[in-house]
């Protein structure tokens, strides 16, 4: 809004400047024009007038000479010469003659008008000094042209003056014509200025619209950008402050999960294509009161006016659902999951910064805990600042061996016998105490040493496996790898070397890859899995069914186990739906010849139910929590 006011000001300023500029220019040109024309008219008038008078004076001089030669005009005959002397000469009938003096041997004869030239000091001076023989002067309001003439033949002198008309007429004629043309020129100039300014304004408006669009939109996805977001949200708060009404609004901070992976594996082109596809999906949520923005990178915002928390959560669930639909980019299939943080006005803040920050904190929590979406709560702030602290300490923790591997048993459901363990990492933090992976795995995944970290876990797990082997326990040890590790080209060689060094049979080591690895190109995953298989290690798909499942992915990957996610087990004793899901996964795995491991059994009811459904293998607190290797050894009892 502020921008459009600026634009209007700019337009009216431009018009004003152009109009006044043109008027100024026209007036200046006209003044110069009038001056020049006036000078030309004056010069022209004067020259015509003086030519005309000169002819008249010459004629009069001839008459005076004949009067002198006939003795009618002689010195000593001082005074006025009767007008009748000249009556027959039409030159003397001119009413405009105001002075005609003849000087004969220092006597002056005043011939007409009764004026004596001595009353005109200016003329006397000019004549006596012989500076000029003619010139202009003024009597009352009349312009007078005077002429002095000396007659060589008889020595008479003549001083003549008459009112000037031709000059005034010329000037007044010019003035009339000039004022008409000045008026016309003036109006033409004003209209021209107005028309030009309209053209320029239109071009400016078009340019402004384009610039405005560029300034407020993201060039890749064409969604409004963060500048526009500030404007919309700040305007909303401003309006609400001016006219306080109990309105609500919600901000959804949307972040793609593991977007970096796509960029790293398939390149930026694919990353860009993915962002464009997601933006197109988000555009479907745009209404009169709901806006979608690309904030930057893989972060999007939905700003929903008149929406309170419950409705915002429904909206978030819809966004997750819509974004999750499979996408094909450059021939590769993707399932994109997003994490969404929600902050609401007025409870979480009444200004942009608070709402934005809190939506971000909530998003971060949703991502860490794999919740999909999360509404802001005060305690999340503490968690968020803890995360920031932790991310700065990861390197130090790795060097100082603060990461400790815990082991959780995997059992035969029927007899509870432990056949393997899963290595689960913990951070023994000097201040925060024992931290579970939710606090730091995603930090590690985003850091540079995600590969070093996984290799560290493998090393510990293989060493422990060797320990158990040496103690007479043949236990398989499963290690979780991050989808980012699929990009570690040296991982297979490293594993081979470690297995050799510790003399551990490869089939005692199992690799668990979570389903979110569907974000990685299937060809990359297939290639690495083949290498793992060639090495002899076992392979599992972890957290199966958590929404990222792609059946073709499962079909194409040659794995030994599929681990059904805990979320289907929690209500298995009561829920027919969960039972149906578990049954269908069991059937699928039977057909594909994969073994199934159930995750997260906590109660006897769950265990019994799953046993009755035909499940063979499981993991869960009911059988044993993650624990230190020594504790697990105790749990194993005597080796058989
Ligand atoms: P996961 O691989 O699915 O591991 C199982 C998680 O479920 C573990 O959480 C385990 O403690 C928990 N769990 C097992 N049984 C039960 C149960 O009966 N009830 C409940 N409520 N929870 C149960 P944990 O140790 O917090 O690990 C969380 C996730 O962190 C793991 O999920 C895995 O994806 C990741 N993770 C753990 N260690 C590593 C690691 O070394 N590298 C990588 N990349 N990821 C790891
Ligand atoms: Mg696992
Ligand atoms: Mg799992």
Description:
With 640 residues, the protein is α/β, with parallel strands linked by helices. The chain has 3 domains: 15-169; 226-389, Reverse transcriptase/Diguanylate cyclase domain (Alpha-Beta Plaits); 393-636, TIM Barrel (Alpha-Beta Barrel). It is built from 18 helices and 22 strands. The chain has helices at 2-69, 121-129, 166-216, 226-242, 259-266, 268-283, 309-324, 352-368, 379-391, 394-399, 441-446, 450-470, 491-502, 522-535, 551-556, 576-592, 604-612, 629-636; strands at 79-80, 97-104, 107-112, 134-139, 142-150, 157-163, 249-256, 290-296, 299-305, 327-329, 332-334, 338-345, 373-375, 403-412, 418-429, 433-435, 476-481, 509-514, 538-544, 561-564, 595-598, 617-619. The strands form 4 sheets. Strands 14-15-17-18-19-20-21-22 form an 8-stranded mixed barrel, surrounded by 4 helices. The protein has a 6-stranded mixed β-sheet with strand order 1-3-2-6-5-4, sandwiched between helices. A 5-stranded mixed β-sheet has the order 8-9-7-12-13, sandwiched between helices. Strand 2 (97-104) and strand 3 form a beta hairpin. Helix 1 (2-69) packs antiparallel against helix 3 (166-216). The longest helix is centred in the first third of the chain and has 68 residues, at 2-69. The two termini are 79 Å apart. Residues 1-5 have low confidence and may be disordered. Bound molecules: ligand C2E and magnesium ion (2 copies). Residues 542-543, 563, 599 line the site of one magnesium ion.
């Amino acid at each position: 809004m502020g921008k459009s006011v600026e634009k209007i000001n700019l337009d009216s300023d431009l018009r004003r400047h152009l109009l006044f500029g043109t008027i100024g220019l026209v007036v200046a040109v006209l003044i110069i024009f009038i001056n020049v024309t006036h000078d030309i008219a004056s010069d022209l008038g004067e020259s015509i007038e003086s030519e005309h008078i000169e002819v008249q004076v010459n004629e009069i001089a001839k008459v005076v000479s004949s009067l002198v030669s006939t003795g009618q005009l002689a010195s000593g005959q001082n005074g006025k010469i009767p007008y009748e002397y000249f009556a027959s000469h039409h030159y003397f009938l001119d009413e405009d003659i105001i002075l005609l003096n003849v000087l004969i041997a220092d006597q002056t004869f005043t011939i007409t008008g009764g004026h004596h030239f001595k009353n005109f000091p200016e003329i006397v001076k000019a004549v006596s000094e012989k500076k000029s023989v003619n010139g202009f002067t003024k009597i009352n309001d009349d312009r007078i042209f005077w002429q002095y003439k000396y007659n060589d033949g008889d020595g008479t002198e003549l001083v003549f003056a008459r009112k000037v008309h031709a000059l005034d007429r010329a000037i007044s004629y010019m003035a009339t014509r000039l004022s008409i043309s000045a008026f016309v020129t003036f109006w033409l100039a004003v209209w021209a200025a107005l028309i030009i300014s309209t053209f320029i304004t239109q071009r400016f408006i078009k340019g402004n619209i384009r610039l405005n669009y560029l300034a407020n939109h993201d060039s890749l996805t064409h969604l409004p950008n963060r500048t526009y977001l500030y404007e919309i949200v700040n305007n909303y708060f401003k309006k609400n402050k001016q006219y306080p009404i109990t309105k609500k609004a919600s901000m959804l901070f949307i972040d793609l999960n593991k977007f970096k992976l796509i960029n790293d594996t398939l390149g930026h082109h694919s990353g860009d294509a993915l962002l464009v596809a997601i933006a197109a999906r988000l555009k479907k949520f745009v209404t009169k009161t709901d806006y979608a923005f690309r904030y930057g990178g893989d972060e999007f915002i939905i700003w929903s006016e008149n929406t309170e928390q419950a409705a915002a959560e429904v909206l978030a669930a819809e966004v997750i659902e819509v974004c999750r639909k499979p996408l094909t980019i450059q021939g590769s299939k993707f399932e994109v999951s997003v994490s969404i943080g929600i902050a609401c006005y007025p409870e979480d803040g009444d200004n942009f910064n608070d709402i934005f920050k809190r939506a971000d904190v909530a998003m971060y929590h949703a991502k860490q805990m794999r919740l999909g979406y999360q509404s802001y709560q005060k305690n999340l702030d503490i968690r968020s600042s803890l995360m920031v602290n932790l991310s700065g300490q990861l390197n130090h923790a790795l060097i100082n061996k603060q990461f400790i591997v815990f082991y959780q048993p995997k059992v035969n459901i029927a007899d509870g016998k432990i056949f393997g363990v899963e290595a689960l990492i913990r951070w023994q933090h000097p201040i925060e105490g024992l931290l579970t992976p939710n606090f730091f795995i995603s930090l590690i995944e985003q850091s540079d040493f995600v590969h070093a970290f996984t290799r560290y876990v493998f090393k510990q797990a293989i060493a422990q496996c060797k320990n158990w082997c040496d103690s007479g326990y043949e236990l398989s040890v499963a290690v979780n790898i991050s989808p980012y590790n699929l990009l570690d080209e040296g991982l297979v060689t490293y594993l081979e070397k470690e297995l050799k060094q510790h003399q551990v049979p490869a089939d005692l080591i199992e690799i668990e890859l979570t389903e979110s690895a569907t974000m990685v190109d299937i060809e990359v995953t297939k290639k690495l899995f083949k290498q793992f298989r060639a090495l002899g290690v076992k392979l599992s798909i972890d957290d199966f069914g958590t929404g990222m499942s792609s059946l073709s992915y499962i079909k194409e990957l040659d794995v030994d186990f599929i681990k059904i996610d805990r979320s289907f087990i929690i209500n298995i004793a009561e829920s027919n739906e969960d039972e149906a899901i578990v049954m269908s996964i069991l059937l699928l795995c039977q057909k594909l010849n994969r073994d199934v491991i159930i995750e997260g059994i906590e109660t006897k009811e769950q265990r019994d139910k799953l046993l009755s459904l035909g499940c063979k293998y499981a993991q869960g607190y009911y059988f044993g929590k993650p624990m230190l290797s020594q504790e697990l050894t105790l749990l194993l009892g005597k080796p058989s």
